[in-house]
Amino acid sequence: MAVPTKGPELGGYDYDFIISVPEDWICLVCHLAMKDPVQIVGCGHRLCNICMESLFRRPSPSCPADRQPLSRDKIFPDAACHRKILDLSVKCSYFRCSWAGELRDVEKHQSSCSFKVVNCPNVGCKEKLTKQELTIHVTFECSWRIIKCEYCTTSFVQNQKQIHLATCTKFPVQCTNKCGVRDIPREMLGNHTRYDCPKTLVQCEYNSLGCDAVFPRSSTTFHSKSQVEHHLTLALRGLESTQHQVRALANLVKEQSQQIKRLEQMTEKYAPYVWKITGFQAVYDRAVTEEQETILSEPFYLFKNGYKLRIKMMPNGGCADPKVHKDFKGKYLSVYIKVIPGEYDSILSWPVTEKIRITMIDQVTCQSDRVNVSKVVDFQKTNWTRLVREEDVGYGFVDFVHQNVLQTRSYLKNDKIFIMVSKS
Predict the structure, then answer these.
(1) What's the rounded Cα separation, in Å, for the pair 335 and 277?
(2) Which positions fall inside the MATH domain (predicted)?
(3) Is the N or the C terminus of the chain less surrounded, counting Cβ atoms within 10 Å?
(4) In which element (H, E) is residue 314 found?
(5) Between the CA of residue 135 and those of 118, 125, 267, 379, what are the distances in Å?
């Protein structure tokens, strides 16, 4: 297929003119009909404006006709000549196009000419064809056109059709047992052979009771009728076995109930306390701005009739000692245990003798992969006497967890953290 001739980047109009272009309208440089002609004062010679610029790029520009030196001051646009050249009639450059018209209209015509050669717009196609051939090619012929599967409506490139049909879940196939059923959607083939196909081998419904017969599904009724006595014998044996299992299960339930009761008693005595802090980012921001540097959990007991406790947290780090507070603020999350006045203080020993474990829980889904942060508070190393009021003091760790560590793993997840306190 012919490709239209294009004018050079530097030069005049390279078209097929209906009549010969007068010699005075031919550029002295590119020898084509002049584009944007200019005239040299004095000698009167004309040339394309672009071609004139190419002459001025030479060391000593001169008129190509008489070699007289050129000066920009003595060159002017020749509008009259330009208008006459545009009045000339030319033919369309595209092969098989019969259009002819004035030079000034040729570019507008060729931009929409049905014989213009264009690339196929389908990604992957390298075909070049005329505009009038494009619609049919893109719609019906191009192997790179996008089509939809007639079975599942998935879109794909036409030349990949066979590959798609080989895996299409809706493509109709025949039963692999050759039962005669056709046009089964591929995704339903498993259900057909598993539940419907008369040639699928199935086990007797009394298999769990001991009947090991295997036969095509179509023979199910025959087998059931011919083996009534055998199946009845198996059912009686199964009933006897079930009775023994029920008695054993009843004993097992009784034992497990007793174990659960014992576990509940232990849990009541030593259940850990878990503090969930939601909206942690807002809590942390208030600590940074010193709007609220400390947050407290609700009071709790770790075991029955024990010490009443509370968790004190400083999300941005710190403690009561001003010097230490300055060194740790902004670097750590600090956690302390407060022993506060409780209901059973009059019967408890003082100072506190317990060891208490503080744990920040790693919220990763798989428990076996968790790496919790855990530290033990030993109250025997303190001199706390019996409390008479809830003071803002606590014993724990100013460096419980570094702020950088807090952002790793899943200690902080969905804007919440969990602190667990248990007896160590």
Answers:
(1) 13
(2) 270-423
(3) N
(4) strand 308-314
(5) 12, 14, 79, 87
pLDDT in tens, 95-131: 889 999 999 999 999 888 989 889 999 999 999 988 8
State the SS3 of 88-99: CEEECCCCCCCC
Among candidate residues 310, 283, 284, the one with its CA nearest the CA of residue 297: 310
For 276, 311, 329, 370, 417, the CA distances from 360, given in Å and listed in that order, are: 10, 12, 19, 11, 8
Exposure of 214 in the CB half-sphere (CA atoms within 13 A): 2
State the DSSP H helix or E strand holding residue 401, giving kind and residue range, or none if neither. Answer: strand 395-402
Neighbours of 138 (CB within 10 A): 18
Bridge partners, 119 (sequence order): 128
Determine the 3-state secondary structure of 256 from DSSP: helix
Enter the pTM of the model: 0.39
